[in-house]
Design a protein that fits this description.
The complex is a heterodimer.
Chain A: E1 2-5, H1 20-24, E2 28-30, E3 39-41, E4 43-44, E5 56-57, H2 72-76, E6 89-92, E7 97-100, E8 104-106, E9 123-125, H3 126-133, E10 154-161, H4 177-191, E11 196-201, H5 211-220, E12 224-227, E13 232-235, E14 242-248, E15 254-260, E16 262-267, E17 269-271, H6 275-282, E18 309-311, H7 321-341, E19 343-346, E20 351-353, H8 363-367, E21 373-374, E22 382-383, H9 393-397, E23 403-405, H10 410-420, E24 429-434, H11 438-447, E25 456-461, H12 469-477, E26 482-487, H13 499-515, E27 523-527, H14 533-548, H15 552-561, H16 579-583
Parallel strand pairs in A: 7-18, 9-16, 10-11, 10-16, 11-12, 24-25, 24-26, 26-27
Antiparallel strand pairs in A: 1-6, 2-3, 4-5, 8-17, 13-14, 14-15, 20-23, 21-22
Chain B: E1 12-17, H1 29-37, E2 42-48, H2 54-66, E3 71-76, H3 79-92, E4 100-104, H4 106-110, H5 117-135, E5 144-147, E6 151-155, H6 159-170, E7 174-178, E8 193-194, E9 199-200
Parallel strand pairs in B: 1-2, 1-3, 3-4, 6-7
Antiparallel strand pairs in B: 8-9
Classes of the chains: A alpha/beta, B alpha/beta.
Chain lengths: 584, 202
Amino acid sequence: MTIRKKARYVDLDLCNSCGDCADVCPQVAPDEYQMGLSSRKAVYIPFPQAVPCSYILDMDTCLGNNPIACGKCADVCEKEAIDFDDADELVTREVGAIIVAIGLDVYDPTEMDEYGYTRYDNVITSMEFERLICAGGPTMGHFVRPSDQERPKRIGFIQCVGSRNPKIGRPYCSNICCMNTVKDTLLLADHYPDTENFVFYQDIRAFGKSFEDMFQRSKEAGTRYIRGLPGDIEEDPETGTLTVTVENTTSSGGLERHELDMVVLSVGVIPATDRDKIASLLTLSKTSDGFFMESHPKLKPVDAPTRGVYFAGFCESPKDIKDSVCQAGAASSRAGALLNAGEIKIEAITSIIDPELCSMCGLCANVCPYGAINWQKKEVATVIEAACAGCGACGATCTFGAITMRHFTDQQLIAQVRATLAEDPEEKVFVFACNWCSYAGGDMAGISRIQYPSTNRVVRTMCSARVSEEMVLEAFRCGAPVVLVSGCHYADCHYIDANRQTVKRVQKLWNKLEKAGVRPERLQLEWISAAEGQKFAKVMGQMEEKRILVTPDEIAHAREALKPKKKKVRPAKKKPVAAKEATA
Amino acid sequence: MATLEKDSELRIGVFVCDCGLNIAGAVDCGAVCEYAETLEDVVCVVRNKYTCADPGQNEIKDAVAAHRLNRVVVASCTPRQHEPTFRQCVHEAGLNPYLMEMANLREHCSWVHPGDWDGATAKAKDLVASAVGRARFLEEQEEMAVPVTRRALVIGGGVAGIEAALEMAEQGHQVTLVEKQASIGGIMAQLDKTYPTMDCSI
């Protein structure tokens, strides 16, 4: 792993956090830690308890270091800790296990126009609430409303802002917001017993240990819980007072209007915005809500599908502090077990090149997503077994039969095609599915009991890139009316980007079919993720619709037209390479 | 471990799992067994209540010995769940683990075609035929052992990342903790009090 260590421009070892630099710094920027409710200098410490406890120079806000435009901080620093020449550093670490704990981002409710966030000063988010009520916050813990710095007496909390809302593409429950609001109402009741608190909600989910007790205490402290989410908020521009209109669904009163001094939007959480970078680095996939997909929802909840990678915290799904700590413990225990073992067994599905059949063309080396094939012009290609992940892209690309994919050989897969289509092929939808996504999507359909036509017949390969032209053609020769090749979504390929080879191959096949007078629509390509049981079922339905349109004549024509010319398809004549030779 | 002669006679055993009613409730497992018996090189077919349970696994081991099986097909659930189970089982029976193949009669068949007895049964037969077809070409494989670098990387310095890094260190491993911000602490550091104990976040 190569890590970019960003320049701080302040020497960590020399800085004693005295703050003289910030005192003289003329440049200010919104303070991110305080949710922008106050400002900081260009040279600053993120917060008093920061670790490392050192100042940092924000070069985007600084007047400049090349040339040094101001330099006051350096002049005043007795420790000479300011280093304008500091630069990013690349650090390389070899590791045996990776724990992904990239956390979350908080939903920005600006798009929910009905609540007027950013339009009305006194509508704030629950994160801003945290800073306003905190002794270390911009108001030293004096809870005031932004419009006039007065203490609000009537405060409303609106739940599920950015959660459980399919209209804005956030259908999931954020898990933490109910209890966070319960906590906030107790804080207010503690600090300011005379405030009246209202909570507008659809359901209060107080399911954890001692949660219900907290909820009851909040009610006993006088918080009014009103079942219903407000339709809109209006502001009196003179006073800054807000009127919230809500349908109270627990009373027969119907529409209620509440005049409030301040409204706190209990915002949901969203997957970290930079998760895609991590996902492509470590070949991780996501569930439909955008959080990382675990190996198994119940039995392997902290393992990533990529071996040696584990999840902790929010990045896997919304959870509170306690659950994050639990999961971190579980992840480190799993990682520790791997490191303690000292070695791992690699599944014997790697590629083997027969030097006698290799034509030295180098195509295999070109398509390998791992650079696991050594090849130079006029030299036989060789596989670095420890680097090979077994996708089979090379095996499907080699036209000389020089590559054997262990445990997913051509003979084995062709035998499956033939055996599946031996009887009544015209009644079947033939499917190639990759182990990690499409096949797993089929499993998900099964686990979820989503029904689809029983005509499909699936053959599993590790990656869709393993499916060679020959395999698809063989299916048509055996009388398959329609064939589906399915793999991981384009950016989510378990083998980095091996499925690009799938696309190329299917496009080539479409041309081939067309030339042979076979409707290219009879070969379909679909991306189905491991989480998409619904999509798997839908695609199988669509394939069935395509199947019934294929006439017996078309099937017969394809059988003939796609017959191998001159060179016969290599049947399983050659005895498979024995295991001993294979590992040699 | 018994080594397979290159040109030895193929002796395939097929084990069809009822999985209680998970499979047998939607697929005619008896008919699947009868069909499996007609397939080339299949010398033994056994129907199990739960193949993955000890009695089921013992039936595989017994049959391997009694019928001198050199390939095993387990027609039960997804290989993504129980392939390691049955690989271990045939290994204990004296066969190379890679001489075992699975047919997914549950996730890919009975659970998704519950109202289609004939269709599901026909499909189950094909899945078994496909697995047997493949099993005929299975080869022994040896897994390569690769050393693991005894160091961990934790990406993200919020509460989960900090906790994971500390735990790894407590286990005696070297850990590198990577955080994109200037300080560790994550979003939790911005909270005032935390539920359910109302104590400070930092």
